[in-house]
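Appendix C. Worked example: Ribonuclease
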Amino acid sequence: MADKKAVKRPDNQRKIFVLDTSVILYDHSAVNSFKEHDVAVPIQVLEELDNFKNGNETRNFEARSFFRMIDRLSGQLLISEWIPLNGAGSGKFKIALDELPAGLNAEKIFGSAKFDHRILNSALVLKEQHPEQRVVLVSKDIGLRLKAKSLDLQAEDYETGKVKNVDELYTGRTLCRNFPAPLLEQVRAGAAASQELLQNLPATNANHFYILKSGRKGLNAFFSVSDGMLLPVQNRQAFKISPKNPEQAFAMHALLDPALKLVTIQGNAGTGKTLLALACALEQRKDFRQIYVTRPIVPLSNKDIGYLPGDIKSKVDPYMAPIWDNLRFIKEQFAAEDKMVYKIDELVSTDKITIAPLAFIRGRTLTKIFFIVDEAQNLTPHEVKTIISRAGEGTKIVFTGDIYQIDTPYLDTASNGLSYLIENAKHHPLYAHITLQKGERSELANVATELL
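Step 2, the predicted output written as structure tokens:
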């Protein structure tokens, strides 16, 4: 039985972090994230990862990468014993074997049907074997963390890559009230930004949008950190799609600006994220070799799409339907122009526009591609990094999503890839972001966002 009267250990004491499968599938290099502390991975995690090693999804990549990394790390050493991690000042690593604790037994308490309970036992054994160290279970699974705490075992989420305060996440725009009228006219005229003008603007260390108000007068503007210019944002049309509010005008400005190679658009359902991105991509179709529109597949009840009937096209089409709906809406704007409708259909039939799940595009080098990743909140930070690292010359990448509507297990508003990208890329000169808040789908749709 665990001694609940044990002396409280100091916070700077060396710890043993026990990682479960969810952490490895989120970040295969997680064992290197704990500085001078030791890291143990229960042997049951290896068995679970072995079931994920085949396939083209990110979790399959993470499983394979973890196996390769541990194989390189161990060399000729046995990983059932503590071995040093890479780097000076790092802790040690081992695979914790399937042993039973002398005291509390998670399998007896919760049942023996789940690997999770054997993982808990591995952590309890380490706690008994190393009373001089604090043992902490690290898991993305809230339920497992609560079970651990009920067994007097410390547990925490994997924090690497998490945004500290989502409520203060960068929005990409600022409302400036009582803006000096002479400076407002200076911006409207397109004059170079003076020192006085810049002193009246917050956030001039990033590409940023402004709603400038001076009495009854107002102006939408964009500050380019590369050239120090503050220029008016016009209501531009793209493939007969026009902005319905200042936020959408900002989004279209970023999407149509060739100097901005990386764009994120975050917002609730119905704010027009995907429609605007697709329309702006079509508007610039002659500037790019191809238009890729993709989204991660998150199956219902987290079952693989292999469970669905039909061929591969039949399996994935339901997940891509929202993108096809947006393309159909754009085609409807040209109902009276048969030639343009035919042109859009031709773009699809010749693969000038490719609409496919993200797993189908994985591994390609994206050269001169307008690449739209929809539902990006369902990606991990590592997935987002991998996608951007595929960008070749002349490519523009757009991530759209709603960080409050996450379907992927073990991701939340703070740990998903879209939040991570917004937080970490906000000062880069090639990047722009805008958060859309006003729904434009219909008045009825806004009821759900505002009241329910």
